[in-house]
Amino acid sequence: MAVIQRQIGLKAKSSGLIVGLAVALSLHPTALAQARRVISIIPATTEMLFAMGAGDRVIAIGSYDHYPPEAKKLPRVGALIDPNVEQILQMRPDLVVLYGTQTELRRRLERANIPYYSYVHKGLGDITQTIRSLGTRVGVEAGANALADRLEKQLADIRERVVNRPRPKTLLVFEREARSLRNIYASGGDGFLHDMLVAAGGIDVMGDVHRQGIQMSTEMVLDRSPEVIVELRYSPEDVSSTDMSAWNRLASVPAVKNHRVILLTGEEFVVPGPRVGDATRRLAAALHPELKW
Amino acid sequence: MAVTLAGFGASTLLVCLLAPLVGSTSINLSRVFDRTLPLADNVDAQVFFVARLPRVVAAGIVGAGLALSGAVFQALLRNPLASPDTLGVSAGAALGAMLALTAHADFTLLGVSVVPLTSFAGSLGALAIVFALSLARRRGTSSTVLLLGGIAIAALLNASGRFIQYLADVTDTFKTVQWLMGSLDVGSYAPIVASLVPFGAACAGFATLPRVLDLISLGEEAAEARGVDVVRAERVALVSASLSTGAAVSLGGPILFVGIIVPHIVRLIVGADHRLVLPASALFGASFLIACDLVARTIVAPVEVPVGIITAIIGGPFFLWLLFRGR
């Protein structure tokens, strides 16, 4: 869950699982001219804009946008729950990229007659779709299509390389209480983390549960007996080796028995943007160390 | 009296025996106790001994601890709305947990991980404030003053917790919300063993209280007229109830409904005699929470429902039925 919230810069007030996220790309009807002054407050779309070559058109970003480095110089105008509307209006953008659930911000932009691009993320395939449509909207179609093609090819290459390899049953964990097996959250059968795992040549042991995030009990981990446990962390400071040894209590789990509890750190695992290709490659390398990556 | 307690004891025993056998996965009992298989190769034994048994034991301790301290606070403060959180002990525990989660603290002590440790420290801090309050309390001050003082402490600690949450990063805020919903999937025996120390001390205190609480609930003056050292009894009750709350909350998180409703349910069944109310609350609190956790972990398996939701959904209507039956 936290990963999902990180992706969209959401401050959770309840733990209600975000379900039924659908890709809803809507274009504001009034203005479809090229955008020259873009504000993007979602980490994924900020990364997309810079990667497609529209970085020079971005004038402000969201509080949780950390990539690419050149974006960090730009002013920050809040995020999912706390967009600074006054500051946004003052900067006179000609396009604001916002998240689909930000209805209040959308209403106020409409009142000010400022066009917006509403984005919601879901699966891996939707990322390239978003890149293309955002590129068209901003007016950097060629760059966006090239980026999307590159990403699609990168993912296709990874799929190709693992296609004839045995697919390990994998549990993809993105949240856990330090040094214990409490409050484990894992990826379910929906969302880009699940899609990445499948593309990287793994079988998602929770794939039958159609949610983006599932709170896992120790019983469920034992029952699903994953052959590999991959733990994703946002930053390397969040983890210590003794922390990872908490898994050793579940000695009958094949992943624990065969020492295949793997830690992967990096922001690319939590932001569904152009870096998912690299993230998928790292995941594939972890699942298939016998191949040369 | 003995029959009533035996009844409560028998139903608790039944729940304790039954609960580890049921779960989201099916296990083979003969394999669970098959000593010839090493534990690392015996999934059934791991499910039973690593996943379910600690969970059932934790639910028992948390349920008993919260129900006992609720019963004692309600009698001591002569207020039916008093609960383990009334004097701010679980707010203190929550504050401790939030600090650890936000600061990304990473240490263990005797096998107990950081969050239970800091939340117990937080509950001890709250207890210290409450105890100072009771020392400052002179004869003649009403229990209302203690109650209001406790509510002020709880408000202060809750506000500090919210401020930390406000400053914290999104992921940490989410972890805090998770912790506040409570979870009995403790995953090892170390926190259970650790919680038995304060819980045992609390029970020793509770054992001295039944007769005193009976007299105090008639009024402090009446109690003093019958030779009860009210101030001393009050301190024992405060410290024991706070220790028991601290042990429970640091183990399972704040599952509050149990602490306020279970004592009332028990009184509706057995009457007001605290020699019955206290042990029956412990037994019923334990079996109630074990049963609720059983529902929480099986009803929409493989996904789980936070146990606090189940306690309120099952306990609320049941309590209403008890209140209004036969009227």
Low-confidence stretches of chain B: none
Within CATH, the superfamily of chain B carries the name ABC transporter involved in vitamin B12 uptake, BtuC
- Major β-sheet annotation of chain A: 6 strands, mixed
Secondary-structure arrangement, i.e. CATH architecture of chain B: Orthogonal Bundle
Count of the domains of chain B = 1
CATH homologous superfamily grouping of the largest domain in chain A = Nitrogenase molybdenum iron protein domain
Major protein interface: A-B, 44 and 42 residues
Mean pLDDT of chain B: 87
Descriptive notes:
The complex is a heterodimer of chains A (293) and B (327). Chain A has 293 residues and is α/β, with parallel strands linked by helices. Chain A has two domains: 2-160, Nitrogenase molybdenum iron protein domain (Rossmann fold); 166-287, Rossmann fold. Helix content of chain A is 35%, strand content 16%. Chain A has helices spanning 2-8, 43-51, 85-90, 103-111, 124-138, 141-162, 192-199, 218-224, 241-244, 254-257, 276-287, and strands spanning 26-27, 38-40, 58-61, 95-99, 116-119, 169-175, 184-187, 203-204, 213-216, 228-233, 261-265. In chain A, strands 6, 7, 8, 9, 10 and 11 form a six-stranded mixed sheet that branches. Chain A has a five-stranded mixed sheet with strand order 1-5-4-2-3, sandwiched between helices. In chain A, α5 packs antiparallel against α6. Chain A is globular, with a radius of gyration of 20 Å. By secondary structure, chain B is an all-alpha fold. Chain B has a single domain, classed as ABC transporter involved in vitamin B12 uptake, BtuC (Orthogonal Bundle), CATH 1.10.3470.10. Chain B has helices at residues 2-18, 29-32, 43-76, 89-103, 114-136, 143-167, 170-180, 190-207, 210-216, 220-225, 230-252, 256-270, 274-298, 307-324. The longest helix of chain B has 34 residues, at 43-76. Chain B is globular, with a radius of gyration of 20 Å. The two termini of chain B are 26 Å apart. The interface between A and B is large, with 44 and 42 residues.
